[in-house]
Amino acid sequence: MNDPHDAAPHQPVDPTPRRDAPAAGAVRPVSSVPVNVPPARDPLDPSEGPVNAPTPRPAVARGNAAVSGRFEPQPPVSAVPHQPTPDSAPVSAVPADTPPAAGYGDDTGTTTYVSRETPTREEDDPPLAMEAMRAVQILNPSGEVTMPRPDRTRVMCVANQKGGVGKTTTTVNLAVALALHGNRVLVVDLDPQGNASTGLNVPHHTGVPDVYDCLIDSVPLEEVAQAVEGIPNLWCVPATIDLAGAEIELVSVVARESRLARAIAAYPGHFDYVFIDCPPSLGLLTVNALVAAQEVLIPIQCEYYALEGLNQLINNINLVRQHLNPQLEVSTILLTMYDRRTRLADAVEQDVRNHFGDKVLQAVIPRNVRVSEAPSYGQSVMTYDPGSRGATSYFEAAQEIAERGVKEPVSRNA
User: Fold this and answer.
1) DSSP 225-263
2) Direct distance between the N- and C-terminal alpha carbons of the chain, in angstroms, rounded to an integer
3) Residue ranges of the AAA domain (predicted)?
């Protein structure tokens, strides 16, 4: 029977069903107008359709009913508050993107939510101090290996006029290894490129007090030295780009060869080791390092070309000893970038050992990718990957240097 509200008195009722009428059982679109208040119809408007069309009814949601793409989304319908029972959890009408509340029966009432993209504390990179402690535990797990402190300060100049032989890498890693085992170490970056400062993660941009101020303006060394983050007992005097013009400016300075020696001697504190990283040249900066040092450490790359300029370096060291620093001596030779797969590396090692004898350390630094990667992270290989072959080799080299300092103590205090 037709609803009397749907039929107008002046139009007949068409009993024939419409072709476009929805099939029986089909889900009809939900009208936004309440069911009990029919909308007003214009009988003259053909878009209204037949007046006897059934009134749309609210769609009934079914659990297994497929959602048709022609139905428009409807606003959420508020559900009747559900009374929880002892066997059921409370149901709350909350948006889908809202994090769920604490579980039913949770005493705390709060839950911590961590994004999958946010690492937890255990996944974060540990601080440098923790890296240093881990390095000591890995390199010296039993604690039996010690690096004794010398009776006097040992000032070592790491020099070689050939570039790319491992001067800066040797300076940084030996300094860190000795500092991690209780020695007070100072690194003086005398290379205008500032690679040692970068390897120790020490600021050395323009405007930072650096070794240039000590050489040119006689600034005290204690006002320039910076403590290395995460490495106890280690300090660094950085180098900035200003140092590139220092050699020209030192030409007219009185006693220009001994400016660095005076700065180190005037330092009020006490260091066990002072490592001076020299530039790959034999200019005034290198001469200042040779005058300030007591010992020369020469890294030699295990390749043929690395031996070509070695005689010239030895001659310059002898000239400095004769005229400026009588106590200077070549105390340590360290073979670096050793590749055991080549016969050339073995040949170079034998030639160097035959020529320099006991001055060559037994420890040999191999070619290792971890040694090359560490400076890009502002670390030494000792803290970057203490279990690598490069780290263990530098650890052994530092141990040899420390033991030699006790057996043959230096004769002059810096």
Assistant:
1) -EEPTT-TTEEEE---GGGGGHHHHHTTSTTGGGHHHHH
2) 115
3) 154-330
Question: What span, in angstroms and rounded, lies between the C-alpha atoms of 124 and 104?
Answer: 33
**Residue 266 per-residue DSSP state:** T
Q: 178-237: per-residue pLDDT in tens?
A: 999 999 999 999 999 999 999 999 998 888 999 999 999 999 999 999 999 989 999 999
Q: pTM to 2 decimals?
A: 0.66
Q: Which residue do the tokens 């089909």 mark?
A: 26
Instruction: Tell me the two tokens of residue 371.
Output: 């040694």
Specify the 3-state DSSP secondary structure of 221: helix
Query: Domains plus CATH for the chain?
Result: 151-405 (3.40.50.300)
Bridge partner residues of 296 (DSSP): 157, 330
> What is the token pair recorded at 91?
């149901």
Contacts of 313 (CB under 8 A, 6+ apart): 159, 160, 161, 282, 298
Provide the edge-to-edge strand list for the sheet that holds 234-237: 226-227, 234-237, 185-189, 273-277, 154-158, 295-301, 329-336
Q: Rounded distance, CA 233 to CA 132, Å?
A: 12
Give the distance from CA 50 to its chain's centroid: 75
